[in-house]
């Protein structure tokens, strides 16, 4: 089993990152380099979270083995450990051989840092650029990132000059590397505490509110009103951009040197707009014969960028609107079925996607009713209580993890109790649950936050390339300080425990933070305590209230604006529901009509001979059979049908079979 656990987790984490990226990204439409870079960033960050518990159990085993094989005299007091018996130092099932973990962490860490500080910012500008060639996009990306890179180089250069001039500093390469790592982790820890404070409160509260059907339905109505406003704004913006594209397409003809750029822009437009613009083109008009002012290539680049953004936004709002409608219809169905006497879940509309037969066999209407109407609310309440308990433990440990005598951090107490008995499975499970909960609180906040329309992770393949790359940057910057914070909570970091014990492989790669004592003994210890203030602010929704005061509509139960938006969203959902019901009724009538077509065709074939033998009688009675419909048309419909008919030719030599052209039919 040596190294087998490491290999299994590497494969599992890869498919996990691939699944999440497939949910948010679009493999068919987005550039392959964007998909690969984002997948690599997500994969490395998730890999650190899953592999770190194995590093902890391996380190505990190495400490035990070192304490058994070395006497205190030979150690010279270098390792302060209790010498257990040899029977207690058995090798864990997930033991990783020496030398593998340092190389593994070094490759993973420096690759993620290269992605977050150099490659991903450059690819962001490249993906958002409106250039028509690779060279043009690279040039635009370099110009946009010149200030970004120049700021860091200026700070780093000033620091090097200060170190070189000051005689008190005698830094070596390893110490300089540690300072760079400390600077990156300090920036990440600053953002980590902000996101963690929000997630520790919002995740349990969202699950508790998930058990309230009325709350979810009201919030869905609120989202519908906001999304309809955004959807209308996206449609209006797309119309304006398409009008500019039409003008440019009409002014730049096929023999113009910039026509290739216009064709590239047209390919990014929706199909209906492409067809509409293609009808008004004149291939034979020479642009040199007209004294028009043609747009420059720079203006076309800007227009290309606007087209990409507007089309992506329009498509995203359309998909989100359909998803929100399905969610609202389902919540209304749940509210109706709660009082059902048959205890069978009845849907208002049938699912548009084909359901799995296995799921249909086990997830019957009766099972669905018991789950949705009885079990699911209680399950969400129990889960919310468990998550709230974890949140309280995290907040307590963040405020007390610096205390080593006595040990007040609950996570450190759990790990030390398991370390005494060398229960490696319990150690790994405790470490995994701890860091997994911390990661969920931080990463879920990254998936929830929205910076206007520039950064927004939308599910169902609706996230643009810029947001995917930005999320990869955030993950790579947040994961290393998150892992260091976890090691501090469990007292596996020597900087926190103040013990000269063997460090974990991950800590050895980070280097000794004692080079910068004001960061190791100050910022890393006391700054995480701010999570208490952030949790209190999140609990009382102070951020939501501030955004609401600034004009950004937020869901607040005691706000008049929220009530108005709920009523508006409820009316929108009711309108869409009536529209879908009419569509289904029309499809049912059409299906019934087409179902009877075979019978009517068969009857016409049988009576063909009778029509030929009695033509005069048939021509006299045909108008009555023509306008006597089985679907019960009104008199107005028959009059409108006669008015829309083509003019009759009374000078015809022969009588047509059409009753509208016969004298009797007239």
Topology:
Blueprint: H1 4-24, H2 32-69, H3 72-75, H4 100-128, H5 134-165, H6 173-209, H7 213-251, H8 259-268, H9 271-278, H10 297-337, H11 357-362, H12 365-400, H13 410-421, H14 424-448, E1 450-451, E2 455-456, H15 465-489, H16 494-497, H17 505-510, H18 517-526, H19 531-539, H20 542-549, H21 560-595, H22 597-606, H23 608-613, H24 615-627, H25 635-643
Antiparallel strand pairs: 1-2
Please describe what this structure looks like.
This protein has 666 residues and is an all-alpha fold. It has a domain at 1-69 and 89-206 and 357-553. It is built from 25 helices and two strands. The protein has a two-stranded antiparallel ribbon. Helix 2 runs parallel beside helix 15.
**What structural class should be given to the helix and strand makeup?**
mainly alpha
Number of helices: 25
Using only C-alpha atoms, the radius of gyration works out to 35 Å
Strand order of the largest sheet: 1-2
What is the ordering of alpha helices and beta strands?
A: HHHHHHHHHHHHHHEEHHHHHHHHHHH
Structure summary:
The protein has helices at about 5-25, 30-70, 70-75, 100-130, 135-165, 175-210, 215-250, 260-270, 270-280, 295-335, 355-360, 365-400, 410-420, 425-450, 465-490, 495, 505-510, 515-525, 530-540, 540-550, 560-595, 595-605, 610-615, 615-625, 635-645; strands spanning about 450, 455. With about 675 residues, it is mostly helical. Strands 1-2 form a two-stranded antiparallel ribbon.
